[in-house]
Amino acid sequence: MSATTKPQTKATSFDAEALRADFPALQQDIYDDTPLVYLDNAATSQTPTAVIDRLEHFHSRENSNVHRGVHRLSQDATDEYESARESIATFIDAPNPEQVIFTRGTTEGLNLISSTFGELVVDEGDEILLTEMEHHSNIVPWQMLAEQVGAEIRVLPVSDRGELEMDRLGEFLTDDTALVAVTHVSNTLGTINPVGDLIDSAHAQDVPVVLDGAQSAPHMPVDVQALDADFFVFSGHKMFGPTGIGILYGKREHLEAMPPYHGGGDMIDEVSFEKSTYDGLPHKFEAGTPHIAGVVGLGTAAEYMMDLNWDAVQAHEDDVLAYATEQVQAIDGLRIVGTAPEKTSVLSFVFEDIHPYDAGTFLDRLGIAVRTGHHCTQPLVERYGLPGTIRASFAAYNTREDADRLVEGLRCVKQMLGDS
Ligand code: PMP
Questions:
Q1: Last residue of some domain: 266, 284, 306?
Q2: What's the pLDDT score for residue 12?
Q3: If you take atom 14 of ligand 1, which residue's CA is the nearest one?
Q4: C-alpha–C-alpha distance, residues 104 and 245, integer Å
Q5: Which of 308, 307, 363, 290 is nearest to 331 (CA)?
Q6: Closest ligand 1 atom to the C-alpha of 107?
Q7: What is the pLDDT of residues 263-285, one digit of tens each?
Q8: Per mean pLDDT, which of 11-25, 34-48, 65-79 is the most reliable?
Q9: DSSP 247-272
Q10: Which of 47, 130, 256, 284 has a CA positioned 20 to 30 A from the CA of residue 395?
Q11: Do 372 and 353 share a structural domain?
């Protein structure tokens, strides 16, 4: 399979029930024979048998270090590791696998960019433009950089219904803007941001754009070349892959100009006590023994996703979200947070008289896994004057029946914990 051509989707339709059968964790009963309804996919998705088997095979037959052994196992591990890189390059349409860097996840990818590229392009007096809906991992690394170099953080506001206030972009994207970092999809609101327009506007001023793809990579085909983002980062564990492994894609000219992030084995060309020189892409950014099993498992997760018919998957996910939204908003005293027309897979809401934590704990006893709190977007939930939200987040294997169980559970919550 070429690294630049997306494979033809093998499936012609999509059967969520059949997909669900691939995920052992979804088959379990919890709390005395209550079947699990898993609606915390924006935090971490479940793992299909294909990935579990791949990890098992790696550990039982291929486990060894990469890029350094002359022996057979090390060569096998290296081949599998590099072949996973090719699969990921195909998955995001990267022009070359060398531009796919393995990280621990989105958070590490963003820290890597801020500590290396950030230091190259952001100077004293410059501005870094973020948005009000960023995850903490796309806020804090930039604040650390801003503090270090004397730059300023600017924040593009979000509207009441959860859209970026694009008509105010001109106020925030100024002659002093050195870099824009924005999430493709909001993990708290589900809003799909108009990143194409943002990137065009930023590039018109020669400002590079970092895209946080943690919530988009699991739900839509991503083409980094069409997006023209300077960087795109995401995590394996939200797209059916293992935890502790993620991807940083970058434009070649940036990656080549950036200094290494970590020093150590595997990232060098030559080392002496006087001076060391560094390896080329992608190894310059992969110091030390990487999460080899994680990489191999993530490669399988990407192949698994590429085998799905994404038009059908998206239609299904949109249907479940629309169905759940309609049912949930009919519950008395419940308000949905995030009502942008362009949304995917996330349904956040609050009860007027029940704390999100209490509602989440009650739902858990009914076998329904949701997330409650600020979802690592504290400035965003504070903008809405909330202590947090209850968030149901869906994956391709969720169905209308899951939404029915959620609604049933919420009605119980209302009855048992509500004021009236
Ligand atoms: N950005 C967004 C939008 C996210 O949803 C998350 C995970 N909740 C992250 C960044 C951080 O991802 P990770 O914890 O895998 O590094």
A1: 306
A2: 57
A3: 107
A4: 4
A5: 363
A6: 16
A7: 999 999 999 999 999 999 999 99
A8: 34-48
A9: EEEE-HHHHHHSPPSS-STTSEEEE-
A10: 130
A11: yes
